[in-house]
User: Which sequence fits this backbone?
């Protein structure tokens, strides 16, 4: 084989290998964490309590600002089930027809009032594709790296993405599971985040 052709083939092979290497290191990850977000979507909750299987479905809206989170839980028929307001050191949950209830621990408050724990403190991160893992390290999800066990025992899987092929995709479907939380067993929460602009 003439040396010129051999060099051409070597150069072509090197170019292909370089392209493959570049592609393999170009892994999409979630965008930078935002202190202010407005989201809405759907929740499906399943758990065991007192030997019975319980299932709940509904919609939610989430408004987050620095130092403040407002959550609204809505039934499938459009009725407000509960509103939650969280500020540093305080959380208040109001259910239709009942007096507001306040506590310092929002996750404990939701379990007491709703009968199951809505992990509001974790959702601040999860809805944007972040978490704190079992070792206390910051976790950033991506389509290629999509599961983690959190410091407080939640097993998360980011199973679907908005704009999955983009450089900075956003979570679309999140599965959160926990073996036990107080008198609740086998708790699973499926969170579906609506794309921006959809109610």
Assistant:
């Amino acid at each position: 084989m003439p040396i010129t052709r051999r060099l051409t083939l070597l150069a072509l092979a090197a170019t292909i290998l370089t392209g493959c290497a570049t592609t393999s290191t170009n892994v999409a990850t979630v965008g930078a964490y935002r202190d202010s977000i407005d989201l809405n979507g759907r929740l499906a909750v399943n758990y065991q309590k007192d030997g019975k299987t319980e299932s709940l479905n509904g919609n939610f809206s989430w408004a987050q600002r620095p130092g403040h989170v407002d959550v609204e839980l809505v039934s499938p028929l459009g009725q407000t089930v509960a509103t939650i307001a969280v500020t540093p050191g305080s959380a208040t949950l109001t259910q239709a027809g009942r007096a507001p209830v306040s506590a310092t621990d929002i996750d404990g408050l939701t379990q007491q009032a709703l009968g199951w724990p809505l992990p509001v403190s974790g959702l601040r991160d999860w809805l944007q594709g972040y978490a704190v893992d079992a070792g206390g390290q910051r976790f950033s999800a991506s389509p290629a790296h999509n599961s983690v066990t959190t410091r407080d025992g939640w097993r998360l899987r980011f199973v679907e993405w908005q704009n999955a092929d983009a450089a900075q995709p956003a979570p679309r479907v999140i599965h959160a599971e926990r073996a036990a939380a107080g008198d609740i067993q086998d708790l699973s929460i499926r969170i579906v985040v609506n794309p921006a602009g959809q109610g």
User: Anything to note?
Assistant: The longest helix spans residues 3-25. The mean pLDDT is 87.
